[in-house]
């Protein structure tokens, strides 16, 4: 269950959080034992990971686009009716805070293709996009070809998108399928089934001597799930499926793996909608131009 020890002169990633909008999430839609009527104003976090040696830059998730009225109409209606958003700063504002532009980003890695994680992909005209291969199954009838489509036709750039196939990936820690992105043990893409087709997480070293961070995307929408204080809520009419996940059983199994990861030394786990972490760190040094301190 342990993670790989560092090698001599081990490369790692400097990880910075990026403001990328806020979303109102009714707790009862996501967790059991929720306070009735409680709505959490949660972040939709994005992250910048810079390789310590090559300085290659990955942005993991793009949060919510500031001009959210330009999402497909069915998404705009969903925002108005179910998931109100506030986007004072988007990922581009956050990158600018660190002296960066979209053209400086080598890779955009999307945990999955839901609108509150894809932002606006079009300004990243030089970046290579990295997504889970199974997401191709949900992109076959995009908007506007399908007027009710939830995914825009130009969401992923043709010719610059790598669809990852996890079938031949190797285990790492509690996870059965991981891809060593740079080939040096500094950054792994983790197969994270359950939430949506092609859902992936990220595991990165944060120091040369053994620190780690796990970016869990939408593997869970509330920290009570990964601490096992609550279970996945079901039966809410606001969801496309019976719960917040496409496959509840697979999502729960993955949550259990994340819980095991949390028990390992020097590992911090962040959710995309991690309101407790955000409330503690917003406006601080964990956000670009600062970085998240390694454990």
From TrEMBL:
<protein>
    <recommendedName>
        <fullName>Metallo-beta-lactamase domain-containing protein</fullName>
    </recommendedName>
</protein>
<comment type="similarity">
    <text>Belongs to the metallo-beta-lactamase superfamily.</text>
</comment>
<dbReference type="GO" id="GO:0016787">
    <property type="term" value="F:hydrolase activity"/>
</dbReference>
<keyword id="KW-0378">Hydrolase</keyword>
<dbReference type="InterPro" id="IPR001279">
    <property type="entry name" value="Metallo-B-lactamas"/>
</dbReference>
<feature type="domain" description="Metallo-beta-lactamase">
    <location>
        <begin position="43"/>
        <end position="273"/>
    </location>
</feature>
<dbReference type="GO" id="GO:0046872">
    <property type="term" value="F:metal ion binding"/>
</dbReference>
<keyword id="KW-0862">Zinc</keyword>
<keyword id="KW-0479">Metal-binding</keyword>
<dbReference type="InterPro" id="IPR051013">
    <property type="entry name" value="MBL_superfamily_lactonases"/>
</dbReference>
<dbReference type="Pfam" id="PF00753">
    <property type="entry name" value="Lactamase_B"/>
</dbReference>
<dbReference type="InterPro" id="IPR036866">
    <property type="entry name" value="RibonucZ/Hydroxyglut_hydro"/>
</dbReference>
């Amino acid at each position: 269950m342990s993670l790989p020890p560092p090698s001599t002169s081990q490369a790692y990633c400097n990880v910075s959080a990026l403001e990328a909008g806020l979303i109102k999430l009714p707790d009862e839609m996501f967790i059991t034992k929720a306070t009735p009527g409680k709505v959490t104003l949660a972040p939709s976090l994005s992250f910048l990971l810079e390789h310590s040696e090559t300085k290659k830059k990955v942005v993991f998730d793009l949060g919510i686009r500031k001009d959210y009225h330009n999402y497909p109409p069915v998404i705009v209606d969903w925002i108005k009716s179910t998931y109100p958003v506030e986007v004072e700063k988007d990922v581009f504002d956050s990158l600018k805070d660190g002296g960066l532009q979209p053209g400086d980003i080598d890779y955009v890695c999307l945990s999955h293709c839901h609108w509150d994680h894809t932002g606006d992909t079009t300004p990243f005209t030089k970046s290579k996009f990295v997504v889970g291969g199974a997401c191709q199954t949900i992109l076959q009838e995009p908007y506007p070809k399908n007027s009710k489509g939830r995914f825009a036709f130009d969401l992923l750039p043709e010719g610059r998108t790598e669809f990852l196939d996890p079938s031949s990936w190797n285990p790492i820690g509690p996870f059965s399928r991981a891809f060593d992105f740079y080939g040096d043990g500094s950054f792994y893409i983790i197969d994270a089934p359950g939430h949506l087709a092609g859902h992936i997480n990220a595991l990165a070293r944060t120091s040369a001597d053994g620190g780690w961070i796990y970016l869990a995307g939408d593997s869970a929408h509330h920290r009570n799930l990964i601490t096992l204080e609550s279970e996945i809520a079901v039966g809410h009419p606001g969801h496309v499926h019976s719960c917040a996940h496409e496959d509840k059983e697979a999502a729960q199994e993955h949550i259990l793996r994340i819980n095991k990861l949390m028990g390992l030394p020097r590992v911090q786990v962040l959710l995309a909608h991690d309101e407790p972490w955000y409330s503690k760190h917003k406006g601080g040094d964990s956000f670009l131009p600062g970085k998240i301190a390694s454990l």
